[in-house]
Structures are given as C-alpha cells and as structure tokens.
Amino acid sequence: MPGSKHSGGLGALGWCSLVWLLLVALSAATADLWAIPPFDRMDWDNLSARPGTRSSAVVLQTGADAEKRSYVYWLGTDTMGRDVVSRLIHGARISLAVGLLAPLIGFIGGGLLGCLAGYFRGRFESLVVAAMDVILAFPGLVLLLVVTFYLGPNLFNLIVTLGCLTVPAFSRVARAQTLVLRDREFVQAARLTGAGHFTILLREIIPNLLVHMTAYGLLAAAFMIMAEGAISFLGLGVPAPTPSWGGMIAEGREVLDEAPHVSMVPAGIMFLTVLAFNLIGDGLRQRKERRASQL
C-alpha cells in the first residue's frame, strides 16, 4: 500500500525529536571545546543579566586563563553571574547520564529477571514478583534521602539509586511480553527441534523483547530526566557547583519576577528533551504494535 512505508517510520515529529537529542548529546560531548566561559566562572558585574547582554571582560574556557574577551551572554546569566549557555551545555552531561544510565540498570537487571520469571514460571516467578512489589512499595524519595545521608550526594549514587527504582517496571514489561512469547508457534517449534532453555531464551525470546524494552526504556529515560530535575530542585542531586538542569531551575526560583530566564530557559530545554524521548519511544511502540497486528 502507498501509505505503508510512511506509517512505519518515525514521522516528522519523530525525526525532529531525534535531531534534537543528537544535538543535545553532541553539545554535552563537546562541552569543553566551546568558546564559552567555564560553567562556574562568576561575573559579578552581570548578575541575572538578561539574554543578549554583552560583556567586554569575560574569560573563556578555551582561551588563556587571564585573557579577557568580549562575549555575549546569549541566554543571560544566573543569580551568580554564570553563563546560562555554558551551564546548560555542561548540565546536559548530568541530565543525559542520569536519563540514559539509570534506565540501563533497570533494562538489564529488570529485563533479565522478568524474562526468566515469565519463561520458567513457578516459584521463581512468585519470588521475583514479590520482590518487585516490595521495591515498588518502598518510597523512592526515602531511599534517596537515606543514600544521600549515608553515602553523600554524587552522580554515581544518584544513577544507581534511580536505576534500582526502575528495575520493577522493566521486570513487569519483560515478564508480560515473555508470557505471550513463550507459547508462540516459533518457540514451540524450537522446543520440538530439541533446543534447550538457554538457546530458546537467547535466540527466540530476548530478540523479540528488545523492541518493547527499548521503547519503554526511552519513556523511562524521559522520566529519569524529570526525576533528576525534581531531585536537584530538592537539593538531593549533584552538589554545586556542578550544573544540572534541575539545579539551574531551583537556583532561579527566587528571582522569577526579575529574571525569569534563569529558571525558564533550563526548564524549556528539559521540556524539549523529555518530549523528544517520549515521542521517539511512543513511535517505536506504535510501530511494533502495527507490525504485530499484521502478523
């Protein structure tokens, strides 16, 4: 059919979302190469400066330590005179690290547990389901407070804690899909040929799980970025002066009337990034559903 090719793609919004995510990732990866001030460099003459403010005495991170140049704060400065553009670019490293690595823990750990539980059933399934229910019942904010209090606030602890909280959700997705796949014809055919459990899981079950898990993982990445923002807003995220989008939003809450850009600009960047992850994840899910309905 003429429209089948178009319906199976990402669509215009999907491609725009992919371009945006690639731009954010590339900016984060090359943050140290940009001709911008260091993210912790304070300009006391331009506190909460509006976007487009020009300064003639700015030290850039790519220049000599004492060399001052003319520079335009394209997105303004925060309450301590730090360049918003520089903090956004460096903060993207934190937000993307949390958004991608935390779901990866759930993807691997939860996906494996859910796949095994759905395939073997029995007591192992009951044990996994009970363990996931316990984790889901435990307040995530309390866990973050405990980890922060005993181990200190840092990026590694934040990623591991949030990653552990995503394990039950990934486990449920993997288990539900495995329960459907284990009785499909191609799995039954593999059993009749004498394939063992490990072979069936590796060749038949797991490859068919990847699309569902990846689509859910993109949605989880969007949620993790929002969670990092909320956690940083509460002061439980990466400690200052390391920038994060959530921390930048929190720093500008006291000057919303005089300088709304301090909070609104990072909030807008976070919104676009979360929206991009959601659109791509939803597009992959719909594409998988269309293919399944055609079988």
Your description of this structure?
With 295 residues, the protein is mainly alpha-helical. It has 10 helices and 2 strands; from the N terminus they run H-H-E-E-H-H-H-H-H-H-H-H. The protein has a two-stranded antiparallel sheet with strand order 1-2.
Inertia-based shape: elongated
Q: Please state how the strands of the largest beta sheet are arranged side by side.
A: 1-2
Q: Biggest sheet: strands, sense, closure?
A: 2 strands, antiparallel
Low-confidence stretches: 1-8
Strand content: under 5%
> What is the structural class?
mainly alpha
C-alpha-based Rg, rounded = 23 Å
What is the helix content?
55-70%
Tell me the distance between the termini. 16 Å
Mean of residue pLDDT values:
86
Order of helices and strands: HHEEHHHHHHHH
Number of distinct helices: 10
Count of extended strands: 2
Give a quick summary of the entry.
This protein is elongated. With 295 residues, the chain is mainly alpha-helical. Helix 6 runs antiparallel to helix 8 (197-233).
